[in-house]
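Students often ask why we bother predicting the structure of a whole assembly rather than each chain alone. The short answer is interfaces. A chain on its own may look different once its partners are present, and contacts between molecules only exist in the joint model. In this exercise we take two input lines together and write out one structure for the complete complex. Read the inputs first and try to guess which parts will touch.
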Amino acid sequence: MAKGPYSDKVMDHFMNPRNMGEISDANGVGEVGNPACGDVMKIFLKINDDQVCEDVKFKTFGCGAAIASSSMATELMIGKKVEELLALTNQAIVDALDGLPPAKIHCSVMAEEAIEEALKNYFKSKGQDPAIVDEMKAKIKKEN
Amino acid sequence: MIYLDNVAGTKPDARVVEKMLSFYTEHYGNPSAHFYPIGREAFEAMEAARGEVASFINAKAEEIVFTSCGTESNNLAVKGFLKNPKNSGKHVIISEIEHFSVDSTVTKLINDGYQITKLKVDDSGLVNPDDLKNAIRKDTALVSIQHTNPEIGTIQYTDRLGAVCREAGVAFHVDAIAAAGFSELDVKSLNCDMLSIASQNFYGPRGAAALYIREGVKVSGLMDGGHQERGYRSGSENVPAIVGMGEAARIAKAEMGIWVPELVRLQKQLWDGLGGMFDFLHFTGNKDRRRPGHVSFWIEYIEGESLLMWLSLKGFACASGSACSSNILAEDEEDLAASYVLTAVGVPSDICAGSLGMSMSKYNTQDDIDNVLKVMPETVQRLCEMSPMYNRK
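Now the answer. The structure tokens for the assembled complex follow.
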């Protein structure tokens, strides 16, 4: 079959999305985007007492690139510590997908933002100030 | 693969391809070279094709100008007409659901001091002829309103819109590219001064299209050169494609009466089948005044491109009016603009991100429609389960 605009990895994650669904007892949930822009991405996190991401699921309304970005993001997240989750950039998601068309890069950015929102929600549920996520994120960016 | 994207171009009829071949292998002369046989043959074949195209839309052969594609025909109609010194007026009227080749062309005229009115359409995509009447001003130079919308399938009251223009003495161009081969086109009863058609949309080859210019209407060519097409379109003619277009026009005129009723029958099945499947599927366009074989819709909770991709993986080629896939090779996400056609017919952008179009041709069969209706429920269900908006309430 002639190759379409997406890499084989993107097509694989589109056809067989990993970790699709919801976590009923999630302790961090983040939703970004809106249908008017064509994408909504929702991420459910289960972070254990050692601050390790034990489980993650997603639900996405969006194009092939949005679905594949969410799916790939969840694969990169499982087993990672909170700081590692925050260090996960959209570029890492794009690279893991063997690239996205330039006009679809924003889908990977949404995935990064969804993780951020879910972690804010996680800290909030622990009674901590969600702003800690922005601080940690800024620190990581500075170090890189 | 089951091909359901015939608004994007039809499969050429085998008789068309057969007729074209010798113009690559034997009669390859330049039709401007009248003094040796292969040039003369090319010329005569081209003129015969002109006759067929003219007869297809009830025009005279000398009223047909061959171009390279529908976009060129539309550009020639709008810019060529306004450029001609015999035509005056700095106001142009179109509808808000014109094809890009009319919409962008007309929008750019603002830079040249033109004023543009884009007529609103109702929620089924129809322009009200009274609105046109009210919009025409003393300085209106041209009205350009398409016959059939390729995205939502709606067919305008073109004859009535034409009558309004005639009465007001304003020139009327009709983009009939999505109509040719699917609706009867008679330039006289449509009351038009110019009409665009493209060969690839009625079982002819790509690379040939035409603009009808009513006798007496003044249009200037856009390309300078060797004065081909009586100066309307300089440049060597694509003889094989033009010959193919002539044959496609001949076949369409003779056989439309056979294939159109069958398309209407299959269309009704697809429409009723999809309509009964989900209460969150919404059709677009006008149910009664629509292109035969054309069904378009959007589904709550589901983005257009992902549905298009799944259908493609299952062997169906459909069209998307999606926000996301309209220009996937664009360098910039800003170019992924939502469909202005959907916005114009009032599709709510807060719950809809992209529509899907299925447009049949004479080659589609009962089995094709049965198969689409078979795969749709599982495909839609799968995407619904993935959507954070499904079952939210």
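Check your guess against this: Chain A touches chain B at residues 4-5, 14-15, 17, 20, 31, 34-42, 59-67, 101-106 (CB under 8 Å).
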